Amino acid sequence: MRPGDLGVDAMHINLHKTFSTPHGGGGPGAGPVVLSDRLAPFAPVPFVRFAGDGTAEFVETRKQAAGSATPFGRITAFHGQMGMFVRALAYMLSHGADGLRQASEDAVLNANYLKARLRDVMSLSFPDRPAMHEVLFDDRFLEGTGVSTLDFAKAMIDEGYHPMTMYFPLVVHGAMLIEPTESESRAELDRFVDTLRDLVTRAKGGEAESFRAAPARAPRRRLDETRAARQPVLTYRPPDEETDRAAAAE
């Protein structure tokens, strides 16, 4: 089904993850913004317009957009994260249509595998619905342990895993959104599951203090996020070449 058939007037088709481009942790999201027939006449220039025969036209100025189109302005950064588009295109061409379908099916399969293997120890937000490429847990399984979603995620760092997406979506309390992607083997998924099951056992076994001290084996300890937000350090130290040379020599 096309998004327009659902009544959608505008959609950002983000290429992140689905087509190998990074997202999160500072990685740029990128992708085209598409409009319905109702909004298309007001699209800012430049934009790409498709004719009935499927041919595309690059409309760069308001004059070129003549006719029924009345663009409301101009986008100065039209090309966006060009490197991400090149990477996504290379990914699509290297895999082909059958490869992209396989990657999507494997991502969905992996997410549902995690759901099946963890549902007896972690609380599922939507237990009766199949997962797509992500499986969503919440913090109900941690009730009474003194361990929060943040504590649980930080403890994962000590086990060698980057934490999952936390507290999103906002409609789920203490959300833990896990996305295994299509590239993980079953052996790696099983190792991940065993790690989470062990963390759940520890949390329910009264080890809340060790969770609140995590990560303990990472190069950086946990920040006081509340204090950092309320008392940000915004001072600027002018470059000191002599001090910088001395530090480099050490």
UniProtKB/TrEMBL annotation:
<feature type="compositionally biased region" description="Basic and acidic residues">
    <location>
        <begin position="238"/>
        <end position="250"/>
    </location>
</feature>
<feature type="domain" description="Glycine dehydrogenase C-terminal">
    <location>
        <begin position="103"/>
        <end position="200"/>
    </location>
</feature>
<dbReference type="GO" id="GO:0030170">
    <property type="term" value="F:pyridoxal phosphate binding"/>
</dbReference>
<keyword id="KW-0663">Pyridoxal phosphate</keyword>
<dbReference type="InterPro" id="IPR049316">
    <property type="entry name" value="GDC-P_C"/>
</dbReference>
<dbReference type="Pfam" id="PF21478">
    <property type="entry name" value="GcvP2_C"/>
</dbReference>
<dbReference type="InterPro" id="IPR015421">
    <property type="entry name" value="PyrdxlP-dep_Trfase_major"/>
</dbReference>
<keyword id="KW-0560">Oxidoreductase</keyword>
<protein>
    <recommendedName>
        <fullName>glycine dehydrogenase (aminomethyl-transferring)</fullName>
        <ecNumber>1.4.4.2</ecNumber>
    </recommendedName>
</protein>
<dbReference type="InterPro" id="IPR020581">
    <property type="entry name" value="GDC_P"/>
</dbReference>
<dbReference type="GO" id="GO:0005960">
    <property type="term" value="C:glycine cleavage complex"/>
</dbReference>
<comment type="function">
    <text>The glycine cleavage system catalyzes the degradation of glycine. The P protein binds the alpha-amino group of glycine through its pyridoxal phosphate cofactor; CO(2) is released and the remaining methylamine moiety is then transferred to the lipoamide cofactor of the H protein.</text>
</comment>
<dbReference type="GO" id="GO:0005829">
    <property type="term" value="C:cytosol"/>
</dbReference>
<dbReference type="InterPro" id="IPR015422">
    <property type="entry name" value="PyrdxlP-dep_Trfase_small"/>
</dbReference>
<dbReference type="GO" id="GO:0019464">
    <property type="term" value="P:glycine decarboxylation via glycine cleavage system"/>
</dbReference>
<dbReference type="GO" id="GO:0004375">
    <property type="term" value="F:glycine dehydrogenase (decarboxylating) activity"/>
</dbReference>
<dbReference type="GO" id="GO:0016594">
    <property type="term" value="F:glycine binding"/>
</dbReference>
<dbReference type="InterPro" id="IPR015424">
    <property type="entry name" value="PyrdxlP-dep_Trfase"/>
</dbReference>
<feature type="region of interest" description="Disordered">
    <location>
        <begin position="208"/>
        <end position="250"/>
    </location>
</feature>
